[in-house]
Amino acid sequence: MKLSKLAIDLGLEHLGGDISISAVAPVQEAGVEHLSFVTAKKYLSKIENIGALIVPPDLANEAVIESKPRLLSTVPSLDVARAAKLLGQEYLTFSGIHPKACVDQTATIGDGVAIGPGAVIGAGVVVGDNTVIQPGVVIYDRCEIGARCIIKANAVIGGEGFGYELDNCRLESITHFGIVRIADDVHIGSGTAIDRARFGATVVGSGTRIDNMVHIAHNVQIGRSCIIVAQVGISGSCIIEDGVVMAGQVGCVPHITIGAGARIGASTGVISDVPAGITWTGWFGQPHRKAMADVVAVRKLPDFMKKVQAFMKKFEE
Amino acid sequence: MKLSKLAIDLGLEHLGGDISISAVAPVQEAGVEHLSFVTAKKYLSKIENIGALIVPPDLANEAVIESKPRLLSTVPSLDVARAAKLLGQEYLTFSGIHPKACVDQTATIGDGVAIGPGAVIGAGVVVGDNTVIQPGVVIYDRCEIGARCIIKANAVIGGEGFGYELDNCRLESITHFGIVRIADDVHIGSGTAIDRARFGATVVGSGTRIDNMVHIAHNVQIGRSCIIVAQVGISGSCIIEDGVVMAGQVGCVPHITIGAGARIGASTGVISDVPAGITWTGWFGQPHRKAMADVVAVRKLPDFMKKVQAFMKKFEE
Amino acid sequence: MKLSKLAIDLGLEHLGGDISISAVAPVQEAGVEHLSFVTAKKYLSKIENIGALIVPPDLANEAVIESKPRLLSTVPSLDVARAAKLLGQEYLTFSGIHPKACVDQTATIGDGVAIGPGAVIGAGVVVGDNTVIQPGVVIYDRCEIGARCIIKANAVIGGEGFGYELDNCRLESITHFGIVRIADDVHIGSGTAIDRARFGATVVGSGTRIDNMVHIAHNVQIGRSCIIVAQVGISGSCIIEDGVVMAGQVGCVPHITIGAGARIGASTGVISDVPAGITWTGWFGQPHRKAMADVVAVRKLPDFMKKVQAFMKKFEE
After folding, report:
1. What is this structure's pTM?
2. Do C230 and B217 touch (CB under 8 A)?
3. For C102-288, CATH number?
4. Which residues contact B162 (CB under 8 A, 6 or more apart)?
């Protein structure tokens, strides 16, 4: 594709000559037919053999760059990704429904949807336009998936929630009649499982990004633009408001609410509601500053105890 | 199905008229052709448009209910689930062996077993009657699965245990000749992995319920009617006795025993045997009451240290 | 197979008579046509009905053994495993590319590779000789897998890394152009996910063993002969040097280095670089001895506080 065509499609200003671009490549690997990007002066020494560059406006007129065909962008790392897409640089590309997928005939599949081999789509499922469902993904009956979602390999959407009642000393399963409803532009990681609701829906809001091996239990409500890192576990009926960030391996007990924009540190055990906007950490979660003060105090504790015991002994003598 | 037929099949007392029921639905969504259930007076205001109800005996003669066709049950949430099953409300329903499953011809598959697309059943595997093996489940050679089990999507039963010996500075795998033996009425969550034993069997007792993404290592012995919540990890050769409850993200070091009926709090690290019947918590697990006392003390520690230091300074002057 | 043939193939000394061996079996289950092994005197009472044994040299002339056909080995548990392989005792055995696998025609598949049903191999993937790819494994485009690797059921190799940038208040995905490069003799557990690099490669060194449900983020560099136990999570760009052992459920924040031969205790939160050779533990990781001293001190803290408060009260009166 011509660089000039890419410039138009990306809506970026084009300086220097026009060349044919075969692919996007990192600075370290790029050659004369590649488009790459640079965001800091220190990388300018490495661009000699690169065909074209995406650069921020403040680098656009550096001497070494002036000889290059180049596009100006305020977000080079994103525009390079968009360029890659336009150039067809995709992974595990497939289009339409793969013959080794298994899609129920009552499912409603949007335009431009790609469903990989081994994926299973249940009865009455709705999948929005341009969503990608990767290999081995299982989506249970009646779940709703928005547009432009990416559901990565071996994720499971809509499995039965984990709930039991004792009946005559036997554990009886509580049937979960509900579904999972995924809004637009959601990404869901490999091996992640989102259970369906007892009634109604387990919900993931638009633009939210979920990493690998995250467990989301029945009836959880997750807001928009949240970031949920790998191996997080969210128990039943939790409410995660918009813009929450949960670092890796966080666990939440059932029925708690995490306020909008809160940030939960890695491996935190969330055992109570979390106020909006706060940073929260600790094995037994609390405000970050307090949790760190406790950690520091505990590390001093063995020495402190010795000192105090010596003091008390002296004064009691 | 007629409500009167459901009453007979469920063994419940039937009051009021008889109507045709198309499906079970939650109170919020139920209409004239639905069966729903109510367990508390506060929900009675919402039942006006609902065809029929399952109610506990103490609500059966409330004024607003007396106009409704109704079934009496001491466990409405369970009987509504049983009704749903009778009405054919299932998820990812399939019967028999799906043509996209892969079942070894030497496996023994019971009556009424359903095996989903993409499932793989190895040589010599035995699957009991009416067990459901969902899509993408892999069961290795010679494993034994009981009757009425549910193994959810992408679970892996009988993979090789994780064990190595050093031989001339190289890690050599220890071959695991054993199997996994799952008793009757066991549920196993999505993405859960249960490794086969070195010799003999890794065992899960009857009626035990295992949530998503649980790791159960080689030679673990799990008793009957245990509840093991998502993302728990149980190391090799642990013994989990009957009726143990393990909350989410618990981890157990190898070779420990958790006594019957013990309850392990979320994210607890179990690093020693746990007595029967006790509640056990803590990053470094101990009895719950003691663990909570420690947490409270640590939260007071920074202030306490300041106070004691001021005191000591004053008295040393 | 004749025991004498096994002795030659395994390079072991053969004492006693020659018999035909049908299979390897544990002492508890072995019969006259089996080969088993014993490593301690206490098991000698159980060998009466066993056809042949592998024993360490110091047991070779015990009275009860002298009547048995036997092979001498300094590592009986490994040689019994090797014997099992020679006898064809494998699990989920398949050879070549299973017709229910999905291998891109541009992938390069080595000699003796076995790819199970439901596995998906992307464009340009390279798989080394004698590697086993089990059912449901997904390997994304251009990833490189070494020789003699075992990738267990439902693992995902080369999924897109988890990285986002804010663009006009929307989360935009950062495209990951890189790959995953797995060296020779690596084992990867069921459900484990290894994400591809932003540029270049996420790397796993030769001989490293990774257990089930481990999350390895983009650009992580893992050395040779590491042992990474189940449910560990390693964040982006971490460096794990040769011979590191990480116990179950360990978590690492991004961009840290764990030095060669370090041992990380179960559930440790690694939030800083770890020196080579050290043992490291704690919710907030630190040297093991210090972490344990802190645990002991905290357990004494509630009583200590009471004592000190009583002391201060007495002296202030």
Report:
1. 0.88
2. yes
3. 2.160.10.10
4. B195, B217, B218, B236, C189, C209, C211, C212, C229, C230
